[in-house]
Amino acid sequence: MGNMLPLEIEKIDWPAIRSTLKPGTKIDVQFNQFDAPVAYVIVMALDIPVFFCRRVEADVAPTLELSENPMVYIPTTRDLCSLRVVVKESVLGAEYLALMPAENAKFLRRRRSIRIRTWENISYRVQFDGKSNIYKGVAVEDLGRGGIGLLVYAAGPVEQGVSAQIKINLPGESEQLAASGEVTHCIAQDNMPRMYRVGIRFVTISPRNQQTIAMYMEQARLKDKSKT
Question: Which long-range contacts (CB under 8 A, 24 or more apart) does 190-196 make?
């Protein structure tokens, strides 16, 4: 299935790819550029360049097109990895997939627990557990793979440990990034009534969204570096 033929076996660094495909690892499979990615979990990877995965949500049935080569997003220990694949086999309505790499994986180095200060036009919507309001972003103070710092206009402070559902719009990205998180701190902004600085640690975020944030951080870092 798929029009793109894999590279010759000696041109694909299968050991490097296989090392990221540990059984139980959750991955995102985006079947085409117009559809949201679907969550799968790795079942096994063979010595030859083929790996198997199982869909996480039973009620999500993606449509496989012969002309499409899915993109796979894999979280790894030190890197974020993306990989275009060929679907070798689809079983039970794409509940199980056998995938083969169509090209070498792309690894993006990530910096743990680092956030970038940002004043660009990043918008967001956030809802805190126990509050009916959906807060639209005043500003994003900082952003990282592991969390986000917001300026929020609210009637009162948000308690530490409260769960949050957040959607983020990055400049140049057509799709919203969704994540759930936990409030780590809430500090009243000096001289601004009802304005709070809220830190949120991501608890659940897809590998694809992690990679999008990491790529944005790297672009912002290079942009700042070019100004110096």
Answer: 194/153, 194/154, 194/155, 194/156, 195/138, 195/151, 195/152, 195/153, 196/151, 196/152, 196/153, 196/154, 196/157, 196/158
